[in-house]
Amino acid sequence: MQHPRRSLFASVSKYFNRAALYSKYEMGLLQQIKACNTVCRFRFPVKHDDGHIEVVEAFRAEHSHHRLPTKGGIRFSPHVTQDEVVALAGLMTYKCAIVGVPFGGAKGGVRIDPHAIGQGFRERLTRRYTAEMVAKNFIGPSVDVPAPDYGTGEQEMAWIADTFRALQPGQLHAYACVTGKPLSLHGIPGRKEATGLGVYYGLMEAMSNEADMKKLGLTRGVAGKRVIIQGLGNVGYHAAKFIQNEGKGIIVAIAEIEGAIHNPDGLDVDAVFRHRRETGSILNYPGATNIENSLAALELDCEVLVPAALENQITRDNAERIKAKIIAEAANGPVDPEAEEILLGRGCLLIPDVYLNAGGVTVSYLEWLKNLSHVSFGRITSHYDENTNTRFVDTLERLTGKHLTNEERQNLTHGPQEIDFVRSALAQTMITSYCKIRKTAVDKKVPDLRTAAFLLAIESVAKSYLTMGIFP
Ligand code: NAD
């Protein structure tokens, strides 16, 4: 018998309460940190491509205003509820606090099936939702800044930016009202892959710790480890690609909505992606075995499982059968608390969502800064740096009498481009944040990384409330 699904809201509350026990703050302050400050529910009509009208339900939750603007993605999903959006907005507050991004948390949700709507409907819906948020002051560069999430991407962000600009003429920083925009509309290179790349950096950092890996019976590093990916969307595709290409991990199975494929010798992520785009399905990929029940693929042999689709994928119904030793939570809330207890009890390492998928908001922060400053990173310094580096290399060659190859010279002299700054800031953020979480776990004798991450977030948000003097 399948157990009823726990709501994400209940899970996040439970994680918060568990971590709060380790903090020294009084109940009132903890309640304020946990509470969602404001939620807006919208209902508006949108015309379908065939002319019929649908009344759409949507939400935007701003969980915490201790930092402004608030920030969080917009998801299009038929399962969106107010509770889910509130829980995801809370996760955003804690996520930003953990990785040191100075935003409060927010989230938007539109109850619609993103796979079942036409492009015209999608555009009208996105623009109308934006107009509703403008009318209620739930969007703006200094107020609340959305981003992509499940079912949305660059195109929706472009429509949001354009609608906002049209409704707020003369706003100098209008494009900073949303992040995850295409490059041609003041986006930033590296944003699209940021969450997936952040997942890879986080996994790499966790797997570089010899003692932790020894406890799991694994050697250090991602290389050669068998990895299963659930969800080949924005986060899953990029995470899989970086794990395969940079980490030299072996992607043995990929699970999608229509089924899963398995090849113990490894799957080529890009080729699978192309196959799905061309045939409309992940199934029947040459050389791989089809698995009709997609969820069953999570139970295959592997060292690392990366759920990158939706919440509540690993529950007490399947947790006992999961073989992975490391669960890297790329999606929000993929493991519910009952499953977590089972997995931790078995000694698995869970790298929590509230940290691991923070790469997106980290790079969104950079995009927002770029939009406010109206200049791309590196524009002012890149050429200058290249000249300085060239003079340095020339001098070294003259003094040593030796000459570098063209490739060596290029590596040493090139002035950093915007993508170099973005990748480097992302890597640094993911690595230092992991170290902070692990240190909190060790110092405060917290038994798992999720509790340690929540504790870190609580302490950071509490400090800003206390310094603001909200609790005199
Ligand atoms: P997406 O819409 O780009 O991709 C999701 C993929 O999961 C799709 O390919 C979909 O077909 C697949 N999927 C849906 N249900 C499935 C199922 N039952 N089994 C297997 N596959 C299934 O969404 P995304 O942006 O990649 O987001 C995925 C998760 O990551 C969500 O939990 C989201 O909240 C979280 N997240 C996303 C970002 C971001 O920057 N996009 C940032 C942080 C967290």
Architecture overview:
The protein has 472 residues and is of the alpha/beta class. Among the domains are: 147 residues, Leucine Dehydrogenase, chain A, domain 1 (Rossmann fold, 3-Layer(aba) Sandwich); 163 residues, NAD(P)-binding Rossmann-like Domain (Rossmann fold, 3-Layer(aba) Sandwich). Helices cover 45% and strands 15% of the residues. It is built from 16 helices and 12 strands. Strand 3, helix 3 and strand 4 form a beta-alpha-beta unit. Helix 3 packs across helix 16, helix 6 crosses helix 8 and helix 6 crosses helix 12. It starts with 7 loop residues before the first helix and ends with a helix.
Summary?
With 472 residues, the chain is of the alpha/beta class. It is built from 16 helices and twelve strands.
List keywords for this structure.
globular; about 475 residues; Rossmann fold; 16 helices; 5-stranded mixed sheet; binds nicotinamide-adenine-dinucleotide; alpha/beta; 12 strands
Would you tell me which CATH topology of the domain at 194-356 applies?
Rossmann fold
**Cofactors and ligands:** nicotinamide-adenine-dinucleotide
Radius of gyration using CA atoms only = 23 Å
Helix content: 40-55%
Contiguous runs where pLDDT drops below 50 for at least 5 residues:
none
Topology, please?
Blueprint: H1 8-20, H2 27-34, E1 38-47, E2 53-62, E3 70-77, H3 82-98, E4 104-111, H4 119-135, E5 144-148, H5 154-167, H6 194-207, H7 210-216, E6 226-230, H8 234-245, E7 250-256, E8 259-262, H9 269-279, E9 289-291, E10 304-307, E11 326-328, H10 337-345, E12 349-351, H11 353-356, H12 359-373, H13 382-400, H14 406-413, H15 418-443, H16 449-468
Parallel strand pairs: 3-4, 3-5, 6-7, 6-10, 10-11, 11-12
Antiparallel strand pairs: 1-2, 2-4, 7-8, 8-9
The structure holds nicotinamide-adenine-dinucleotide.
